[in-house]
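Researcher: I'm comparing several assemblies side by side, and this is the next one on my list. It has 265 residues spread over two chains. Same procedure as the others: predict the full complex and return the structure.
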Amino acid sequence: MEALAIAKAMRENLWLYPSVEIVHIVGFAILVGSIVMFDLRVLGLSKSIPVRALSRHMLPWSLGALLLIVPTGLAMFSAHAGDFLNNRAFQVKMALLLTAGMNAAWFRVGPYQTVKAWDVGVAAPVSARVSVAASIAIWFSVIACGRLLAYL
Amino acid sequence: MTRLFAAALAAAALPALAHHGWSEYDSSKPMKLTGKVLESGYEHPHGHVKLETPGKTWTVILAPPSRMENRGLAAGEIATGKTVTVEGYPNREKASELRAERIVAGGKTVELR
């Protein structure tokens, strides 16, 4: 993978790596920002905002941000794939991403199915609140691991 | 225009370029090494040279290439076969790795931090 043209360009082109890093950061600011704002609403903040309306607004941004994050992440990964694979922070980060994805999927097929009953003004079920609290914790940890992989 | 764009990008990229810290290097043991470059990487996220010094070959971690170029240290000046001097600190765990605070190459001294 490190022999790919993109990997070589990432290492040797003067401005590619920092540019890609910037796009990656913009992407996860949008992703984690939109996710956490939704999660806080489900936890019980601003209960006058309908959960479904907020979800319709936030979810496309969360998913769209992946178009910025994933290609740039792969590009950075390709530059030093071996180092990343051996990096404990990277391993934990990937495991957390998997967990975050499964948690989100479980939220959608589980507690969110009854959202009509807790759309406005009432508390979300405990299962929903546990899931979004976990989501916030997992995503903050993903960011922490992303930063720490430069230090370990 | 390109230059302006590059400068704007450079300013925006600064926090990202402070890629990893210096804490893994022991600043209480400053070292000065002079030797021949056996291998050179003008590469992201950090440049490096393998430096042959009497009795030991060091891996010397430099700055991101964008910063080195910005400060006037071209790739050719740290190329294989060149003789350079670096001042820096040894890694606390990797016995033959040093992070350079500055480098003397091509007749000039360039700060790397």
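Model: For your comparison table: The radius of gyration of chain B is 14 Å.
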